[in-house]
Amino acid sequence: MDIARKVLADLDKELQWVHETYRDLHRHPELSLEETRTSALVAGKLEEFGYQVQHLGGTGVVGVLDNGPGRTVVARADMDALPVQEATGLDYASENDGVMHACGHDVHVAALLGAAKLLADHRTEWSGTYIALFQPAEETAQGSAAMVADGLADKIPAPDVAFAQHVMGLPAGELQTIAGPVLSAGDSIRITVHGTGAHGSMPQLSVDPVVLAASIVMRLQSVVSREVQPGEFAVLTIGSVQVGAKSNIIADKATLLLNLRSYDNAVRETLIKAVERIVRGECAAAGSPKEPEFEYYDQFPLTTNDAAVTARVSAAFEAYFGAVGSAGRQSASEDFSRIPDAFGVPYTFWLLGGMDPQACKEGKTAPNHSPHFAPVIEPTLARGVEAMAVAALSELA
Ligand code: ZN
Ligand code: ZN
What we know:
12 helices, binds zinc ion, 397 residues, alpha/beta, eight-stranded mixed sheet, 2 domains, Aminopeptidase, elongated, Alpha-Beta Plaits
């Protein structure tokens, strides 16, 4: 990792603008698919660093640095913020009412820009192609799909490998990796089931959607306990049931909102098939006059780290940082994997600690998406830049 040390020797000099960029991004958060200011800032920096810049999928930005023969690496940062009213009291807190970088995507952007600059400035130390990709709308699972739909696979050189990182509630400076599934697949389903409305005093004329929805809710509880292999991770939550408005009116339909989480595509298929089968079966049993409707939304793919790539990156992290932690499987979800999947290439996604270590020990840190979420600037940003550069150089040096 001598080359990584050479490339990162100037890190201290660069950290000043990285910090300024981070504070600027934090002050000016933008919601999913509305990242116009962020996107312009990123594109401007990449051009300044000597990257070939393209805009893709609305506010998405890709910078390509072609530096001779060798492997091609794509590193991704997400840019969107959340509809959260910031309550951190930081002097660089959000100036956009009701919008906040409460998931640390500003850390990801600033860190990737820092790595992109260092790799460009030290291009004599390595060979290959480095691609810095900034995607919109991770929080709504729309951004990577929008870039892929906009022709990503035809518009940039095909990578050999892809990387991404996420700042989490770990002690600042700590890195954690894991081979295999790291983030769950997530699916939301809006289910509409139909009954026949009637006067509350004449149930014999109705097909009661309240009774139908109640049967469905109870029967769905058996999916995880009876259909998924014991030991496999699966969550089926019914977050909402809406039916009827008045005690003496039998409604004519019910709407259920489901959330599914899994770590395995076969388990995900089992869950979806079971939900559809049970809902159709209960509708038939109730004498429902119309087929139920299933609308899938907020769908996050599984994030499953390639074993060989993860081993190479972990070894590079260990050589450079001395130690790297082991991540547990996270129940959160991400849409990053759609980018490597568009090319059919392996990837690894690691966790970056961002919290004051003492506060971590005392359990006083606010989690991602909290209005109090406040990563400490250092060593979080330095480590974020280093991790991105070290991982890239493990392929390009
Ligand atoms: Zn988030
Ligand atoms: Zn996030």
